[in-house]
Design a protein that fits this description.
Blueprint (H helix, E strand, L loop, with lengths): L1 E6 L4 H11 L4 E6 L9 H8 L4 E4 L6 H6 L1 H22 L3 E6 L22 H16 L4 E6 L2 E2 L6 H11 L3 E4 L3 E2 L2 E2 H16 L6 E4 L6 E2 H11 L7 E4 L32 H14 L4
Parallel strand pairs: 1-2, 1-3, 3-4, 4-5, 5-10, 6-9, 7-12
Antiparallel strand pairs: 8-11
Helix pairs in contact: 1-7, 2-4, 4-5, 6-8
Length: 292
């Protein structure tokens, strides 16, 4: 039996992870939510990791704008908390799969970022997540797996796709930015890939390092919103393009968040599915659920 520990199990990705792993033959899953485990508490982390074969960290400070205003608090979770997990995993010889982000890059490229491309976070959130990445690479050079994702959506949390669905019911038109390019990624598909990577890690087929867990293809937020309308049987012409300066935010967003996927070949795995077919598969689930 393989004993998995999933932190952040109440989040959008964490809930999908526990569901996916729960269906894996021979897997025993411990899902811990924030009330169960403060990942910045070294003793609590040590006790939680003990007795498990593999850890997936989906716990994080995810408020990007809040991180800009409270960077020390965000980094305590996204940087220091990850270090505590990496220390415990190193102590027990357990692989760690750390979920990271495209925000570690400056977003000024015009070709997909490779796994080894230079980083350059634009703000506090990216700097904190990069600190977590560096801790994993330092403490777990062979058993640490950093999986960067971006533009994540799913049925169990608030996200852009759900917002578009909600606004489609209340507004005649939507103005959506068309100058940011990325890869909308279904949390369920990422969870499936994390499960496969974890199994490959345990059998020695996957080397430690950085992997990019984003959907294949690319699109702007405007294009994504139009796709949501189209796949929902709504008129996509109701979605109108605009620019980012129309929606000022405390934290700068990368204008280019397209990640390359060559790293998966090292683990004997291919890229994640394309963003459009995944969106088509996910939409019925999002429409069937509500998030308070």
């Amino acid at each position: 039996m393989t004993r998995w520990l999933v932190t952040g199990a109440a989040g959008m990705l964490g809930r999908d992870l526990t569901t996916v792993l729960g269906a894996v033959p021979g897997a025993s899953v411990t899902g811990l939510v924030r009330a169960d485990l403060d990942i910045t508490d070294g003793r609590a982390v040590d006790a939680a990791v003990a007795g498990h074969d593999l850890v997936v960290n989906a716990a994080a400070w995810t408020d990007v704008d809040g991180a800009e205003q409270h960077e020390a608090a965000a980094t305590r979770v996204n940087g220091d908390g990850v270090r505590r997990l990496a220390e415990a995993c190193a102590r027990y010889g357990v692989p760690l799969l750390q979920v990271s982000t495209d925000y570690v890059f400056a977003g000024d490229a015009d070709t997909p970022y490779a796994e080894d491309s230079p980083t350059g976070p634009l703000g506090g959130y990216g700097r904190g997540k990069l600190a977590g990445e560096l801790a994993v690479r330092e403490l777990l050079p062979e058993r640490g797996f950093v999986v960067r994702t971006a533009w994540l959506y799913g049925e169990h949390g608030r996200n852009f796709v759900r917002t578009v669905l909600d606004l489609a019911e209340r507004r005649d038109t939507l103005d959506v930015v068309d100058d940011q390019l990325g890869q909308p990624t279904w949390s369920r598909s990422l969870a499936v890939r994390l499960a496969a990577l974890g199994e490959a890690a345990l059998t020695g087929r996957a080397p430690g390092g950085i992997y990019h867990g984003t959907a294949s293809g690319q699109v702007t937020w405007f294009g994504l919103a139009r796709a949501v309308f189209e796949l929902s049987g709504l008129d996509p012409e109701r979605v109108r393009p605009t620019t980012s300066d129309r929606f000022p935010r405390p934290a700068r967003r990368p204008s280019y968040s397209v990640l390359g996927h060559r790293g998966w070949a090292r683990a004997g795995l291919g890229p994640l599915p394309g963003w459009y077919p995944d969106l088509a598969a996910a939409l019925p689930l999002l429409r069937a659920t509500r998030v308070d």
